[in-house]
Design goal:
370 residues, mainly alpha, two-stranded antiparallel sheet, 13 helices, disordered N terminus
Length: 370
């Protein structure tokens, strides 16, 4: 089943599919590189011990002292470097998060969105279609530009536009058909709806973080900022909850036995162990991402902030789970399927990749506080 509000219903040429598959492959390489960096951070956080004092010795020291310290204490030096480059991880996560919306905008164009609005029987389909294209594609571009130039207000405005688009697309394209769908068709609508909830959570989390970057003394918007600043941590936490809700609900529904059955269906070796690990990574990862803001700020794991370490560890676990699940459940079937089935797998894969982008942004936001 296609995601009608995001992808034009008419069959596209084979060249378009090849281009999209190539783009997904390149994005996967970017994710793998970022994931390797995040894995190094977590290893450092658990093994560094007393090495956190090392980077302080670099301040005011010459190049030879820095080289000597790096040789003597490579773990804390590595952490210090990544603390300074968390923004780079956010810059990598931004395009990944916006991937599915940019794909939709490029493939559909304005006329595609108008056709979707007409198929869903919206009033004034030409106007609604143009607004859909603007809020989907324009909002995604605003988020990317805002992250690149560090303009929090632009990021917030773009994220709100994409959220509004997601709400309408999810209701019209999945929630309404859900009541009349049956069998595998119903399962596909449930999966797409859950993915959209997680994507919306990524954007809400992003808004909460960016609110904290605004100043109450800013002209015109100062009073509004002053009102929302105390609410920003709560908004970010709500976003985290929405991000992980599909994982938690799937774990509650399937349990270890359900994940074991899936592992057996896809031919994983040692399906009992594979299923248990899938359940563990999805549920423990979700718990760490969700509960990390509630840990007391004074708690630490070694020399590192416990909130940050648990948040990064949870995001990493979910990224690993999503990569394996996306490859087995969508990439491999996408290569061998055709028509609407291939489109469903392609779009589901793009959504999972975008959710991984949200996890990378969490890691990037947390790194400076490590």
């Amino acid at each position: 089943m296609m995601d009608e509000p995001l992808v034009h219903q008419e069959e596209q040429g084979g060249s378009t599919r090849l281009l999209l598959a190539s783009a997904l492959t390149r994005v996967a390489a970017l994710i793998a590189a970022a994931l390797g960096a995040a894995s190094a951070i977590s290893a450092v956080a658990t093994a560094a011990g007393d090495g956190a004092a090392g980077p302080a010795a670099l301040r005011g020291a010459g190049p030879s002292a820095a080289i000597r310290l790096a040789a003597e204490d490579p773990l804390s030096t590595h952490v210090a470097w990544w603390r300074q480059h968390g923004a780079g991880v956010v810059d990598a996560g931004g395009p990944v998060l916006m991937l599915v919306f940019l794909m939709s905008g490029l493939e559909n164009g304005i006329f595609g969105f108008i056709g979707i609005a007409r198929a869903l029987q919206y009033p004034l389909p030409a106007f609604v279609g143009c607004m859909g294209a603007l809020f989907n594609t324009g909002g995604a571009v605003m988020v990317l530009v805002g992250l690149f130039i560090s303009d929090a207000l632009l990021v917030i405005a773009g994220a709100k536009m994409v959220i509004i688009f997601l709400i309408f697309a999810s209701y019209s394209g999945h929630y309404k058909p859900l009541s009349s769908a049956e069998g595998q068709e119903k399962v596909k609508h449930q999966q797409s709806l859950a993915n959209n909830v997680s994507l919306g959570g990524c954007l809400v989390m992003l808004i909460g973080h960016e609110i904290m970057q605004l100043s109450p003394s800013a002209p015109l918007i100062g009073p509004v900022v002053a009102f929302y600043l105390p609410l920003a941590p709560g908004i970010s936490t709500v976003g985290r909850f929405l991000m992980v809700f599909p994982f938690v609900s799937a774990g509650a529904k399937l349990g270890v036995a359900g994940f074991t059955g899936i592992a057996r269906h896809f031919g994983f070796p040692l399906p009992a162990i594979s299923g248990f690990l899938a359940f563990l990574f999805s549920q423990l990862g979700s718990s760490l991402v969700l509960l990390s803001p509630f840990l007391p700020s004074r708690w630490s794991i070694g020399p590192f902030n416990a909130q940050v370490v648990t948040s990064i560890a949870g995001a990493k676990m979910l990224i690993i789970f999503l990569i394996i699940a996306s490859y087995s459940g969508h990439f491999r079937p996408m290569v061998t399927s055709e028509g609407p089935e291939q489109r469903h797998h392609m779009l589901s894969l793009a959504k999972n990749v975008s959710i991984i982008g949200g996890m990378l942004i969490i890691i990037g936001f947390d790194l400076p506080r490590l």
